[in-house]
C-alpha cells in the first residue's frame, strides 16, 4: 500500500456500477454528471464502509478506469421535501398520523432529464486523518477499515451520486499491480470539493453546510485531489454567507 504525503496508510478501492450521476451545480435544472466523482462523493463511499467521529477521510487521487460514456435518462422526481426529523419521529412513535410523499401525485411529480455516466469504473485512493486526541488510534482505524473493505462489509450500501445508482467496491491491497488508468484528459474547471467543513471536530455532516470548491484537472485519467486544508481548496470567508 502506498504512503500518503503526510503519513498513515493509503487505502485504495476499485469502484464500479451500472450508472452514476454527480451533478454539476452550475446546471440547476437538468442533471449533468461530472466525468468522475467529486471528492465528497468519493469520501462518502469510504464513509459507508467505515466511519467514526474520531477521524475523517482525505481523498488523494481518483483514477478513471473507463472513459466517460454518457446516457440520457428521464426520471420522475418529487418536488416536495421530507419533513423535520421531529415529525418523522412522531410518526414512528404513533403520536401523529403519517403524511407520506406520494411520488405519483401530479402536483409533486416533475420529470427531469439526467445525463448520467454509463458503466462507470474508477479507483479511489484515500487515507485517514485522525482528529485531535485520536492520533494514537490511527493504526487500529486502518486495520479495521481494511478488514471491513476486504470482505465487502459496509454500514450502508454506497452509491454513485444517486441512491438508485448502486456502487460495487473491491479493496485493492496493492494498487501498483492493477491496470493503469485510461488515457483521458479534461479541464473540468471549478469542481465541488465538499458540502461540509471537514475540519469540524465532530465530523462532516454535523454542522451547517459549508461549500468548498477547487480547480479540477484530469490528466491521463488521473484527478489529483489537494488536501482540504490546502490553499488550492476555496472555502467561504468567515463572516460571509457561503
Average of per-residue pLDDT values: 87
**What structural class do the secondary elements suggest?**
mainly beta
Helix-strand pattern: EEEHEEHEEHEEEEEEE
Please give the largest β-sheet.
Answer: 8 strands, antiparallel
Shape descriptor:
globular
Helix content: 10-25%
Termini distance? 37 Å
Report Rg. Answer: 19 Å
What is the CATH C level class of the domain at 10-74 and 112-179, in words? Alpha Beta
Number of helices: 3
- Would you tell me which CATH topology of the domain at 10-74 and 112-179 applies? Alpha-Beta Plaits
What is the CATH architecture term of the domain at 10-74 and 112-179? 2-Layer Sandwich
The total strand number stands at 14
Determine the strand fraction and express it as a percent band.
25-35%
Low-confidence stretches: none
Task: Walk me through the structure.
- With 242 residues, this protein is mostly beta strands.
- The chain has a domain at 10-74 and 112-179: Alpha-Beta Plaits (2-Layer Sandwich).
- Helices cover 14% and strands 34% of the residues.
- The chain has 3 helices and 14 strands.
- It has helices at 39-49, 85-93, 138-150, and strands spanning 10-16, 19-20, 31-32, 55-64, 70-78, 109-118, 121-130, 159-160, 162-166, 168-171, 186-194, 212-219, 222-224, 233-234.
- The strands form 3 sheets. Strands 1, 4, 7, 10, 11, 12, 13 and 14 form an 8-stranded antiparallel beta sheet that branches. Strands 2, 3, 5 and 6 form a 4-stranded mixed beta sheet that branches.
- The chain is globular, with a radius of gyration of 19 Å.
- The mean pLDDT is 87.
